[in-house]
């Protein structure tokens, strides 16, 4: 069977299939395709945003933050910073800062498990500020929900 015979055969098969197909097949296929696209779009939209992470590289502890306003809505790009002092006579220091994502979440990883003074996390968004004190010796893996409100 050469190329021309194969092409002629394929056209005849397609033509016979066109005659047998019902008049509702095309809208049904179109509806199925639209449904598939909608479902795939919903699953992509349902994925949560990636949480911003700062790695201190000083130990095994971590702290998760969720920052909200007074009406419990997440605050985007609220800044959270901390100064970690360590080493002989606490001469060494590391300043860390992270901004929250659209869900108001941020994370500090690999914080030291032993500190001389509790870590002071300063959370700010615009003119609103709040300080959270955290001692990693008490809770190595911690999570805080911070509500920034006008007082």
Describe what you observe in this structure:
The strands form two sheets. A four-stranded mixed beta sheet has the order 1-5-2-8, with no helix packed on it. Strands 4-3-6-7 form a four-stranded antiparallel beta sheet, with no helix packed on it. The N and C termini lie far apart (87 Å). The chain has two helices and eight strands, in the order H-H-E-E-E-E-E-E-E-E. It has helices spanning 3-20, 25-46; strands spanning 53-55, 61-68, 79-86, 92-99, 105-111, 119-125, 128-134, 141-147. It folds into two domains: 3-46, no CATH class; 53-147, Carboxypeptidase-like, regulatory domain (Immunoglobulin-like, Sandwich), CATH 2.60.40. Strand 6 (119-125) and strand 7 (128-134) form a beta hairpin.
Short description:
With 151 residues, the protein is α/β, with parallel strands linked by helices. 26% of the residues lie in helices and 36% in strands.
Give a quick account of the main beta sheet: strands, pairing sense, barrel closure. Answer: 4 strands, mixed
**Order of strands, widest sheet:** 1-5-2-8
Q: Unreliable runs, pLDDT <50, ≥5 residues?
A: none
Quickly give the structural class.
Answer: alpha/beta
Structurally, the number of domains stands at 2
Briefly note the CATH topology name of the largest domain.
Immunoglobulin-like
Average pLDDT works out at 82
CATH superfamily of the largest domain: Carboxypeptidase-like, regulatory domain
Helices and strands, in order, run as: HHEEEEEEEE
Number of strands: 8
Output the CATH class name of the largest domain. Answer: Mainly Beta
Number of helices: 2
How does CATH name the architecture of the largest domain? Sandwich
DSSP strand content: 35-45%
Q: What is the approximate shape?
A: elongated
Fraction of residues in H or I helices: 25-40%
Our Rg estimate from Cα atoms comes to 29 Å
